[in-house]
Amino acid sequence: MNNENIDISKLELASNKRRLRAFIIDDFLITFVMLLLLWEPILNTEGDYFAIAMLMNKAYIQIITIKIIYQSFFIWYYGATLGKLFTKIKVIDFDNFGRVSFAQSVLRASGRILSESFFYLGFMLAYYTKSKQTFHDKIAKTLVVNEVN
Questions:
Q1: Would you say residue 113 lies in a domain?
Q2: pLDDT tens digit string along 10-69?
């Protein structure tokens, strides 16, 4: 995506509804990847829900790592995760409305983990700020906007 030629007058903040759809798509993708990676150990639990919960707890670091890599790479390289691409929204730099740097994308992905870890409170900021920024958008200085065609 080439953000250098964005017409700023056409920028429109992404709705919380679109952002929620993108979030759901991305979380399903991560869940699917984790199921693939943990398929054999899950089968070995023989349907014991407590054993599955314990398995997921043991895989917590791997889940967080995959989420950070996924979010960081796609936001940095494409300006959007697969969920955001599907819902036609993208992440841009707050200061210059251009491409997000790699450091910003890693900071945003890490902040997103914190937003999730504390009862998704970081996401709730989007409902109460004029710029619709979540906690992770604020710390990384990013905005989520509709794709400009």
A1: yes
A2: 789 999 999 999 999 999 999 999 999 999 999 999 989 999 999 999 999 999 999 999
Joined together, the tokens standing for residue 92 give: 């841009």
Domain extent, residue 44, equals 13-146
Of 78, 110, 79, nearest in space to 14 by CA: 79
Q: Using a cut of 0.85, tell me whether the model's pTM lies above it.
A: yes
CA trace torsion 78, 84, 89, 94 (10° rounding): -60
Distances (CA, A) of 83 to 47, 99, 101: 30, 18, 20
Q: Does the pLDDT of residue 71 top 70, yes or no?
A: yes
* Residue 49 within a domain: yes
Structural domain tally of the chain?
1
Q: How far is 142 from 13, CA to CA, in rounded Å?
A: 11
- 4 within some domain: no
